[in-house]
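Board notes (copied after class):
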Amino acid sequence: ASSPGIGGRTLRRFGPIVLLSPALLLLVTETLPAGERINATAFLAVSFGILLLILLGVLVRVIDVAKVEASTSGAMAKRAKVGLQQEAPLASRLSDALHIVDVSQADGWEVITRFRPGSGVVAGDTSAVRTLPDGSIGVVMIDVTGHGAEPALRAIRIRDLLLHSLAHGHDPADALGYLGWASNDDLLATSVVMRIDPSTGIAEVSSAGHPPVIHIGSQRVELVAPTGPLLYLDPDSKYQVVSIEISVGDTVILYSDGVADVQRSRDGMPEPQALADMLLAEGGVPQRSADLTIGFGASDPTDDQSVVVIFRRR
């Protein structure tokens, strides 16, 4: 009854009125001759009044609880709305940070990226092509399962660990092996890591379950298959390094599962050969290759699609 809410006010207002019912019963009992008065009637009147008060108390308690829950739900909805407004800039910044290209110090090399998220604006695909401290070009592509801010943050963390390892002189296979020690994550992810000597065009490639890298020359196409299992699948995984030579006019294309899984062979495995043949027929022009590769996947994808095209001009 002392509650400041609507329940307390209702009880204070209608409680005395409810008490009139047993009072009236008592008055009726008092009008009867003394010999006909029944103590049970008086007891029943008082009990009835107490029962009505209890029922009224339960009712107003339910009203108060419902109001509190409605108020709490409204506050939570308001906080959720504010949270979404606060997270929108973060999602935008994450989207901008997913794909990094900086090869300004490597003359004669051009990099083009394409990106199409499976949902929203933030996904689990990330890539980086950067000039390393020793002058070589480090290339990393990560594909983490899932969509949204959390997979994106984890993918960026993996990418930066791999770049850090390359910057400290490790080859791509050692970088992938070091990753399992530095970040024992409970996720499924694929990755391809490359180190390119910009003067000779010799590239070291190591792949953790990622779709094959496509190397397009003047009259040939080469597929560089994965050299080890998915990341974190086996803590003792060993990765191999494959060397390729990127001549002047050659194009190297990296892409995520969202592109590769669209084209499948009869046995259900990804079939990148169809994409490679199409790109070879187009001559390996970098802009055209990027558009064709991202267009090879579904226009309304359920999985994230990322493409990195590296072209050697001279």
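Comment from the instructor: Confidence is low (pLDDT under 50) at residues 265-270. The first strand starts at residue 99 and ends at 102.
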